[in-house]
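Hello again,

I reread your note about wanting to compare the complex against the isolated chains. To keep things tidy I'm splitting this into two emails, and this first one only covers the full assembly. Below are the input lines as submitted, including protein chains and any nucleic acid or small-molecule components. They are followed by the predicted structure of everything together. The single-chain runs will come separately.
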Amino acid sequence: MARAAKVLLNVPAIKKDFPILQRKVRDKPLTYLDSTATSQKPKQVIDTMTDYYSRYNANVHRAIYELGEEATRAYEGSRERIAEFIGAKDPMEVAFTKSTTESLNVIAYGYALKTTRLKEGDEILGTVLEHHSNHVPWHFVRDLKGITLKYVDVDDEGHLRMEQYDDLITRRTKIVTVAHVSNVLGTINDVKEIARRAHEVGAVCVVDAAQSVPHMPVDVQALDCDFLAFSGHKMLGPTGIGILYGKKEILEVTEPLLGGGEMISEVHLGSAKWNDVPYKFEGGTPPIAEAIGLGAAVDYLVKLGMPAVRAHEMEVTAYALEKLAKVAGLRMYGPRDVKERGGVVSFTMEKAHPHDIASILDVEGVCIRSGHHCAQPLMDRYDLAATARASFYVYNDLEDVDRLVAALEKVNEVFA
Amino acid sequence: MGSGAGPYQAQILDHYKHPHNRGVLDPATHAARESNPLCGDEISLTLRVDGSDRIEDVRFDGEGCAISMASASLLTDALRGKTLDEAKAFDRPTLLKDLGVALSSVREQCALLPLRALQTALGRPPTAQGH
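Full-complex prediction:
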């Protein structure tokens, strides 16, 4: 049986807020351990979006009538709360996009590709532990600009080899990019130090925060990063909404990716002037309900308190590391110290392929992920084809870990 | 179906733990390698066809989950002694029926990996990797 949890979050009460957690899968209670892929949504978020569609659905920014005013207030209010949530100086440093992927593509295109800032022979420094969405946009830049991509390696425990920054950052480095938290290993990277190193040579630091903003306090001013990208759907919010944060002066010199309505201040036949930051990045009717829904998700997380969210996940993760270590033939990846990792645990089992593990767990109502987790370069680094991955969030408790472990014992029985 | 282990029925587990026709034919008259980008599974198939267009021997090799490996084991069993035309006619419903377990759409891709290798080896366009 699970040991009693320290009361950091009232998980039974939290579980009640999530309608999906009330359902059963194959007559078993749903044990959802795939929040790294996407989180579940509390009724507060679902209701907020329904309320927008039911009561004040209108396009934002231009309508003169009352509904449009209400929609604009809710949309901009959401921006303000998100800006405050990540410690931005000004809500105008926060642009709505579709996803972390789109945010990173805006940076690659608008900061690196569409300007003369990067020249042939310049360098972009990434790491081997990035998600594909923080690899491929930089491939585009390399192919069109003739720049060089370099990568910082990880050690066997999944830490970035920080000493490599000494040699890999050069006078030609223009962009240094890193995931705040690895979506496979859980490693929390020292973004503040990496940003400091980047700034020493006048480079900008781009942070993929898709796995950190949902799970721990993040303060962009303390990190001193220049760009930061994250997604709504991984932090209790809806799909289809992402955030691009940038320091104001840097967003000012970043070109938009999408041309169209809203992102202009004036248009003539054959020419146009961009709207102000951040609106120039929001071409077309934005995902309004989604932006408002993300605001409600932020409210929910603020009410729980991000330090408590982080402390809770550390407790659940520590318990998982301890219990999983006792499952026969199971091998875990990533830092052993919970202080150095987020609530994601990747593992393999001696006798069962990750896909088979996930299928057997599915029969037990336990949802985990298996595969390369959109991080093939990292899998190659460890010579793995795939891993199984369990991840935890505010609605998971020690009993969920017990159900995971019991299901993994079943895997060993099936493949005995 | 019916047991608590979903697709992991005795036949599948048997073929996975004791695969038939594992290895590489050298020389071979037909060969192909296919991989599943979703999970990194990889299967190579080698066939030796005799003068009367009959499959004299067939082997598979590779790394993968129980479903793809069991599927390859079953498929290679079914292919031995067949004519090329019969092999070309081997399709997705036949293979899934031979496996005899219900699979989700994602897991179906695992089961179809050896069939895609066969179709490539025989110069037929492989079964689409739809979702």
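For quick reference: The helical segments of chain B are 10-17, 66-79, 84-89, 92-99, 105-121.

B.
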